[in-house]
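Input:
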Amino acid sequence: MATLQAHGLRRVYGRGDSRVEALRGVSLEVAAGEFLAVVGPSGCGKTTLLHLCGGMDRATDGTVTVDGVALGDLDDDALTALRRECVGFVFQFFNLLPTLTLAENIALPLLLAGVPSAVGAARAREGAERVGLAHRLAHYPGQVSGGELQRAAVARAVIHQPALLIADEPTGNLDSDTGRRVLEVLRTLHRDTGVALLLATHDPLIAEAADRVLTMRDGSEVPGPP
Amino acid sequence: MTLFRQFIVRALLQDRARTVVTLVGLTLGVAVVVAIRLANASSVRGFETALDVVAGKTSLEIVGAGVGVPETQLSDLGWLRDYGRVSPVIDRTASLRAPNDTESPVRVLGVDVLRERPFREYQLVRFARDGREPRPQELLAVLLDPTSVVLTERFAGRQAIDLDTPVQLIVGDRIHDVVVRGLLLDEGPARVVDGQLVLMDIATAQLLFDRLGWVDRVEIQLYEGETADTIADAERAIAARLPAGLHIQRPARRGRQVEKMLAAFHFNLTSLSYIALVVGLFLVYNTVAVSVITRRREIGTLRALGATRRMVRRLFLGEAAVLAMVGAGLGLPVGWLLARAAVQLTSTTVNALYITSAAAVPALGAGDLLIACAVALPLALVGAVIPATEAAGVTPTAAVRDVDRFVRYHRFPRGSVALAVLLFGLGWWLSTQDAVGGLPVFGLGAALAVVFGAAALVPALLDLLRRVGRKTLGGWFGVEGLLAHANLSASVSRLAVSVAALVVSLAMLAAIAIMVGSFRETVGYWVGQTLQGDLFVATAGRAPLGPAVTISAATEQRIAAHPAVTALDRFRSLDLPYGSDDGLIILGAGDFEVLLEYGGLLFKSPADGRAAMRRAVGADAVVVSETLALKYDVAVDDRIELDTPQGPRPFEVLAVYYDYSSDRGRVVMDGRTFARHYGVQRPSGLTLYLEAGVDSEAVREELLAAVGPDHRLFINTNAMLRAEVLRIFDATFAITYALQAIAIFVAIVGVSATLLTLTLERRRELALLRLVGANRGQIRRMVVIEAALLGMLSQGIGLPVGVVLSLILIYVVNVQSFGWTIQFHLPLGFLAQSTVLIAVTTALAGLYPARLATRLAEGGGSEVIT
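Output:
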């Protein structure tokens, strides 16, 4: 069974004249160990799709199942718990908490799940080593480079061994060289852990690295280039 | 201006909750300052108004040394008529019982009607209706009957008393039946003391008040026009001819004496009122800070479109100015209402300590508006400087992209530590300086220096907390504790102002609690040592200022005759001018032999005070209270000169004793010495010592029965009097509870507003937390832990600072203002309680920001990702 299954997803914002239909019935599946890239121009609904798939937002119509759990049936607490246990996120703007060190940032999902801080610290160290950040553990986000920030974000996204990893333009805010290195880290982790990876991007090079590509325009799936 | 209207005014109107909270704070700050100013003015003015109206057209008055003017001397003063019209007066207080059984304190004026007419305008209702004033003979006819009194229409109306109604006048322990024979129209003298005035013939007054052969003063209305020069000339000429023991003065002098008595009390109250302004300052800071934070992008856009830094700074300073003006406008009427309430509250204090009545609160004038603005505007601008400067520093690109919130960790704030050390040093130096004109100016300066020193130390202590404590908090509260510590650590510079304000407020709370607690302990101990009598007999209607009412001979005999009474101390007291500038001290007299055998004064010096006191029996020697010793720089073995009816006489000071019953200063001499210099006076109170093993409660009942229904006495047992002393003490310090409430208010509003600011500032981070799996409860707990941490941190700094402040209040300010020695006492229970209270209230104060945080976290998801 696929790790992520989405059927007929629609998302409508606003009402009346200000009504905007961001998604118009999109369906997709990502199996464990698979890498699906979502591409399309700005405003085509990529981010909305990722929100719905990661349990950050609820669909107007349609269903999402992550690791066998239908998100529509969950209340807010259960949805939060699911995000904490089954989903990892990487965003365009790094999004580490500026008040925590890189080690604390990486360990955060574990700590929020009630894992003892010593265990969290050890796992964060392992994760940091995997993304080449072992020497930066005690630094704050303000003290490291953009590439290092994004690598820390990747380490945080997989520290709790999620079934699904969602990445939204993870290299969009980096120069091409740094972006390539971050992508490398992502792919290595994806290969090693067997996590299902759903990634939105503008970058054709990244899309090329994916197992499959889903192309979107105006909130719908369109046939992509062969 | 258009930009200001669009960018600032509109936002203030839209964000109503924040605007209202700030305005409430500013209004409260201004209101408290205005209220205390008005309340102080009213208590002095109350006396002055009464004085002015009662003094009428009197230009000068002749007074005796404490006991009044003997009538025998009046015939020798016939020459006074060369200067003006002369009139003797009895001016006392009593209690009037109306037919409806309510009792009211009244001022009784005994006048010589035939001579009085030119001095005051009396409009009797029955003549006024005929459109004319009463002729002296008609007034005399009204008053001639020794049971006749005239009341005011205002008072009579209130008590439903008609003409020819019998009422009772309670003078000392005696109850007199009198009949209301006239009503004064509600104007002129009748409006004094809210109409609680009783007019009677002087002879009747002398009889009623046990003043046969004496008058309280002789009033003079000059024939010539009353210019400053003619009055001064006459004053000099009359002074030169007056016999020893009599003095001439202007009626206003009595007002100045009251003003001087109240000066220290008012000065301290006013100083404390400024604490309320801390609330205002702090809230303006927060409002403008929130305003800047929530509109970073807008500011960036403005800057990108060409607004200069100066324009941005002015916009936000303008916001503060608008808030200040509205706060001042609202603060004035609220202050007036507060003053009215405060007069009722402090009238207990002022009455217990000083005078009998305070006037109505004066109406607000343009001057008050000016003061309110002068207080609010600079305050608001000072509060807004930091955030406005921050706004001016927003760069167009950073604000538009909103990626500039990376935590900036500052270096250890050495500068502020140096400033703190400097301020503490200054505080220490100021605390060693003497009072200025009897006011603790330097003492309060020292307190201020310590407060600002503590505020300057806050950034360093916050920095210290940042470096340590994360592990501990993480251990105690898990990930929420870790996040709370991380959040606070990252906002040291923003928190410094808020925590400093909290520290100041909580330090004040602790300091006042320690001072009042210490004072209460001291008074409790003093009462325990000093009040050795078994029963204390006093009369009704005893006024703290002015002549004491006395106990009649008949009553005294009946009491002394009780078989259980083994010894009896008759004490009397009178007010005596002392010192060069309108000081008014209390001269007391008691039976020193009885006091030595049974009583227990607490002596400050010499070591063997009792032996010294023994030498004062019957001799021209006195013991003085420490308040007098400190105020007038008097020490053991000095000679002080006291005014007596025979002129000034020297008395040797043999001992100084502790006395907390008045801050005016008290001189006590043996009853025989008193009688020799001031004549035999009826006692104003009796202290009874009973046989060992006798039930004092039972004796009290028997004595009350023995004096009968036509006399009225207050007899207190030792336990009752001790409780009464502490009750008066607590009433006196009731106003300090208002200040404590303000401190708690600052704590709650301060923590809430600070966290609101921080929460708004990190909405993206909150959303991110939700995305990585934090549930609502965890976010709420994190904010509440931050709130409690802020409260506890402030309390942690505030407590030791409060202890230092209390030492300054006790050993400097209090000694300089009142001259009392207070033993330092740490009310541990209270401090522990208040610490728990602060922890709980500040944690509760975090609830609203916590709710907001969860809401922001929900709505901020898209912001995180895009």
